Amino acid sequence: MAKPFETKIQDLVYNVDVGIGLRLIKAGLYCLGVLILMLLYTATQFHGLKEAEAMDYGQLGRNLATKHQFVTQCVRPLTMWGLIEKSSKHSPMVNGHPDTLHAPLWPLVLAAGFKATRVSFSGDNAGGVFPPEQWVVIPLSHLFTLLTGIMVLLIGKRLFDKRVGLLSMTVFFLSDTVWSTSISGLGISLAMFLVTAAVYAALVAVARAQEDLPTRKWLVPMGVALVFCILAFLTRYATAVIVPGIALYIGLSLKKRGWTRALIFIAVFLVGLSPWLARNKIVSGGLLGMAPYTALIGTDSFPEDALERSLSPQITAGAVAKELQHKLVTHLSRYYSQDLRTIGDGLLVCLFITAFFYRFVRTPVHLLRWCMALSALLLLFVAGVFGDVTARLFVVFWPLVIIYGFAFFFILLERLQLRVRLFNLAITTLFVVLAALPLILTMMPPRVGFPYPPYYHLITRNVSSLLEPVEIMCTDMPWATAWYGNRTSLLLPSSMDEFYEINDYTKQIDGIYFTQLTLNKPWVKTLLMGRDRSWFPLFESRIPADFPLPHGMTIPSGTMDQLFLTDSMERLRAK
Questions:
Q1: Among residues 313, 210, 208, which one has the least CA distance to residue 253?
Q2: How is the chain split into domains, by residue range?
Q3: 3-state SS, residue 110
Q4: 200 near 154, Cβ under 8 Å?
Q5: Residue 279 burial by CB count (10 A; 0-12/13-18/19+): exposed, middle or buried?
Q6: How far does the chain reach from its first CA to its final CA, in angstroms?
Q7: What integer pLDDT is reported at residue 184 of this predicted model?
Q8: Which residues in the chain land under pLDDT 70?
């Protein structure tokens, strides 16, 4: 029998007051608060990409969307050498240059975003942010950040309780580390989500296997964890460190064939990577392309960008091993004392480290902590070899640090035995505010401006437009001219002799573009007497008689902030 109208009204009022309606209102207000925070942070802190690698990923995504090939317009002499030496084709392929440095998933996600939104790459909005960054790159990063927050809630509830999960998610969204990573455009937010989701799926799979549920009940989440691990690797190669940690957790948690399942987990992971590894082997001769060579960046033989700019790097096994050992020891000391211990925003890191001296009662909680510590330790060694770019991936462990830090905080709070509930609430609120303090201070004035020098998309586009789409530009920031200017761009070779070699025997270069990245280097130590001394005459307008690009202009006009040289004065006048 249908309820009377008055009863329906009473039920509605009850639901809004204390029932499901109240929970929906609270959830809606919470989501609205997070979205407002996200928009405020983006508006105050983002005015364009600052990272060279982020621009590299952007132009790779555009090429996937438009050309349906994993090719790059940012060509490095190192990768040209790699294709000549390692590939069966023996051709550097300046046009249609296959990318052999980056993992493919983040560019693929960007390509899907570009195609779905049909965003314009014209960049003609005077003074504004480059449209693809504003409407695709940053929103996609924020999307994965929001999804990671949901994973934090689910892991916190599974390992501890709803209170830990909810407050951990709140602090995650109040973290300056999280949002600064999200606006970087580097795809680390995607890697963080995939790693966190893989851990959650593994927790569910192991719990179901321990309960002796039917095989399909635990095999499905185990398969999901595998898929997330594979996708994380295809986002950032260094995230492979999560696989030994999850495998160790499986082996220690399952009494029946635990280690067998752990080995199968690793084996299937490797099988899932085989198509991409095979592609790299065919294209460049190495399973990871030219990415392993980046470990040499920052060594004594290849300081700063010397390796990427070299067309014929002199690499000897003995010297490489010795220099990598020195680099590893140096970086380990710095990362252990700084990066690893400041993985997030302060207080929670302290509690997380202290919690290793406390034994949690529940076995999954206890084991997962040590297994993730193994993965973090492996990443420490990998970052020691590959440097700061890899060290930034420590942030993928930040969600777990928050969860364990909050759990230990509540343990300490309960041991205070405060009888007044208001005191507990006040201390918890103070703790959340202190955790959010870096975010609050970051969003306060002064505001962040455009990343010039040297990156400003309007200037870069105007300079790039001096060349036709089929012509080649040589520059010290090819990632920017490739992304903003949509021109095939060659990284400035280490010497003018290598420039001549490429121009005369491989591909004609139609323009050369120097920015503050070169012109602001130490004048005597680097430009006059150092590694870039062969280029020094160009900066003093003493252009060699046989140089193919004798005509130039300064940018902005009349200054020496930037310099562009080309083969024809008519080209400059026409623009």
A1: 210
A2: 5-45, 135-443, 457-574
A3: helix
A4: yes
A5: middle
A6: 81
A7: 96
A8: 1-19, 87-90, 123-127, 339-342, 344, 346, 558, 574-575
